[in-house]
Each structure stands twice: as C-alpha cells, then as structure tokens.
Task: structure prediction
Amino acid sequence: MFVQALKQVGMAFGAARTKLPTPSDVFFEVQLIGDALGRFGAVPLTITTTRPHEVAGELMRDRDPRQWDVQIRAVGPRRVN
Result:
C-alpha cells in the first residue's frame, strides 16, 4: 500500500514536470553577493547557466553563509539558431 502511494505521488510529480520547460530550455543568472555592508565587493559575481542550483552550490562551497549569499533569477528561454 505504501509503495502504491509512492508510485502515485511520483506519477503526479512526473506529470507536473512535463508541463514545465526542461532545465536546458531556460537560462538563469546566479549571483554571488557579499555581506550587506559590501565589504566583499561592490559588483556581484554573475554567472549565466542552465543549471542554477549546481552553480550556486559551487559558488557557496567553503564560504561562510553568514557573510555570503547566492541569488538565482530566471533570465529567459534559450534561443536555438
């Protein structure tokens, strides 16, 4: 019974994902920002990517989260020429 419920939940999430664009269809800006006083630079480091959570994890590796922050913002769909 528990396994059946998990399958139904998985199927529901799978159906919901098909309505959303795939990660490679949308670009995101990931910004590494210093503390509120700006002691770590006035201009944030910005990286444009299709894998924002992976990039955010790499940017925050070995950094103190009390002093650093990451912001993710959708930029727009990817253009295919």
Observations:
- The CA atoms of residues 25 and 79 lie 8 Å apart.
- Residues 2-19 form the longest helix (18 residues).
- Residues 22-77 form one domain.
